Please model this.
Amino acid sequence: MDPDSGSEERWLAVLLVAFVAVKVGFVLRFALHGKWVMDEFLAASMPLLIPEGFYGAWDPVKTILYAYVFGAARAPVTDAMGVMTATRLAGFLLASGTAALVYGIALSIRRSRIEALLAVAVLFSFSNFAERSYRVRSDTVAVFFEMAALALLTRRKAGRKEALLAGLACGLAFASTQKAVYGLLAAGLAIASGLVSRGERRETAVELVRFAAGFWAVVLLYAVAFGGTGFPGVLRSVFLSPMDVALHGADVYRGGLGKYVSQTLERNGDLWALGAGGVVLALCGWRSTERPGRRAAVAAAVVVPLVFAHAQPWPYVFVFATATLSPFATEVPFALARWGVSRGAACAVVLALCAASLPRNVRYLAHDDELQRRVVREAEALLGPEDRYLDGTWMVVSRRHAGKVMWDTKVVSDIRSAAGQGHFEAMGAVFAEQPRLVVLNFRTLALGPAIRRYLEGSYVRVHPNLLLSGALVSPGESVAFLARSPGSYSLYQESGAPVREVFLVDGRPAQHSVPLVAGLHEVRVDVRSTARALFPEGLTLSGPIPARRPPEDLFAGVYD
Model:
């Protein structure tokens, strides 16, 4: 053995470990301070709905095991910012676990430790994984379980027990999001690949039965847990509710979502090509490839096309594909090494492609969430423990949002369309829950006239992005205040400081504060006074009122 070869291996291992450590550091930094995507707030808030019960008064459409996973993460903290950090850390740990599973799969399919480290380096070099794998979403949970299933199926001596456990893991993934059906299909076909060998058919058939049994055990347990004796209704919801979204969910996005397919190909085209080429080589060498390698190749060959063909290919969806593809990223360069190219040169090619992603990681540091954090802190300070608010994204993850539905683009479009025809039932139901605060973001602003009729005369801007239940009162004049949020109200100066003076409510004098029920009230201040604002009692306002700066875009560039 060439002594220089061992030295080269050691240096390469050190370099790879250092590279992966840097990448993990970037991902952790993104997880702690990266700008939040809209749906993450809802995922972090879903545990608040657990006490109300799922599949009862409303259908969550998506399976909701992920709510319990993130619910466990948020248990030690109560403030909104603490919850956001805790759930993001849970997402980071799941992403790290996914990376560890990729390493284990690479070893199982006869990759050396160097090659397995290279596979992890490639995984972290995909912009989709670096920027999306830690997101507080059902996908983050599902990818981990799906890769756990593949890790079980690619063990050197995988058999009936591993097939059963893999079925259980796929069931847990599916219970987190129905999109995991891609991984379920991939795992099932990976096992079924043994049917091509006459000697493996009997054992393969038994493993398929075990795998299916594991999956259905989880699904049936899920249905019984949420539906009891009415579990058939839960099963029907699990399999039928998301069908319309799956088939037509992208129709409302003008211009389509194909731009995110182009985006990942532009940013990661070389890595996609490297992984895809490796899968092709593995499939071409089917006869000489051991069973773990065949199963991993089949899984990748199934998942990747399905993800690219997905009806709503948001950037985070590609994490499903990057995880299954990465173990094959070393196949092409090391095939070249077998044909005469030096091993060091082959590693250098892969590392060079990975290193090319570092400048983007540095640029992505600018995607910080400071603006979002400021708005959330301000909003939380204006809300009592039992108060509700409205923003369509559930940004204040420590408080209950008014209304149970998430207002995505389709829902907003439907509400606007109904309002245009004189139907305001949806908005009326939301304001019947008496939100004290309204956050101005792209969803509430998009509602236009549909929401404006509920805001005028009921809310005042106390921050560029926040409307608080209250009224502005000019001296010597009466103002009609339609209180949508009942409670104790008092007067504040234009500076935002509370003021102690007598004022009139519905013709009766009040001093310091007055309890108001929901409904219309007449408010008047003394003619000798200056302009006042009537707001819920006991607040500390951060600036002059009303706020006059235009609302800031809280979600600018979240998918850039």
